[in-house]
Amino acid sequence: xxxISIIIPTYNEEDRIPKSLEKISExxxxxxxxxxxIVVDDASTDNTSETAxxxxxxxxxxxxxxxEKSRFAGxxxxxxxxxxxxxxxxxxxxxxxxxxxxxxxxxLQEKISEGYDIAIGSRALQRSSVxxxxxxxxxxxxxxxxxxxxxLTVKGIVDTQCGFKLFTRESSLEIFxxxxxxxxxxxxxxxxxxxxxxxxxxxxxxxxxxxxxSTVNPIKDSLKMLIDLFKIRLYYSKKDGPVLDxxxxxxxxxxxxxxxxxxxxxxxxxxxGVLYLLTRLFGMGPISANLISxxxxxIWSFTWNSLWTFSQRNTQDSLIKKLLIxxxxxxxxxxxxxxxxxxxxxxxxxFDLFAKVLTVPxxxxxxxxxxxxxxxxxxxxxxxSWYYYxxxxxxxxxxxxxxxxxxxxxxxxx
Length: 414
Known about the structure:
Blueprint: E1 4-10, H1 17-28, E2 35-42, H2 48-53, E3 62-67, H3 75-84, E4 90-94, H4 105-113, E5 118-122, E6 129-132, H5 136-152, E7 164-168, H6 169-177, H7 186-197, E8 201-205, E9 207-209, H8 220-235, H9 243-253, H10 255-281, H11 286-309, H12 319-347, H13 352-375, H14 386-406
Parallel strand pairs: 1-2, 1-4, 2-3, 5-8, 6-9
Antiparallel strand pairs: 4-7, 5-7
Helix pairs in contact: 5-8, 10-11, 10-13, 11-12, 12-13, 12-14
């Protein structure tokens, strides 16, 4: 006999959860040992947990899991925590409003017994019986979203969003352990990950009653869903996949470089803008003005790379220490910048602002490599090779000194 865990994600469901649990208690009472019911309270502000616990006398294996508010908060996170806390051979998650009657579980179990790894309820199949329909706007949103889903991620599934899905523990647990999307797109991620693993999915028409008390915002949440689809393609992209997959792979696996580059682009605007003001409005020499513009850009760059590019890394260093290291690395970046600027402006004779632009790729790559491996190095990667990085920067300083003497340019510009 296969045991079944029923996961119910909830948020402020004090009014609706009693009706759902009452029906589940009736459904499971003839074979209580077969079922485990886990109500996951996603940091509700009402009495959802207390209300659910009142059914402990009616449902033999009832657990109420209370989550505290976190950055992962959302239905997908509640489902994930419920699944990981479950023990059943089969795992069902169903909405707290009971929009799909628990009796429809029998249909999904039939598909599992036929050899499918996952059976999902569907409101969109021709044989589905939608007892209460959504508004025209929501139905239009659903159709549009499914077109995007079919185009970008899961093909062949008509309804990915129905909150009534049954998984075999043996083949699907790894998917939940590696889950990354916890917002509206979590259903799509689970199914997309399953297809990547080669799991068999059956879409089953089910009874469904629309509850008009939905908190979904047609505009804001539609945008979130679209973003989630792109995130899924990024997370599950493969280097040896189709062309689109390869593009997503490069975008995701080198994301810190692209983020660093975006910061670098804004940094360049600040840098060149300050250089323009100093040389054109204040009449300062290009080399001296370049020194000042670079330092202002360094402060700008450190701020945004700390807040965004490397914000997920556990560096364990204080902000002051990181700033000092960043300044030292930026000294090396400045020297690289000055060396290239001298070559382009003094030796080749290129127009100063254009020469400045040409220095950007060299400075960007140098700063990214050293800051990624030293300033913002993740603690898991071990200690940074600061000794060798320091020697490299000193060698660059010596080279710059030689060049300034060779070109008869003052060390700090003119």
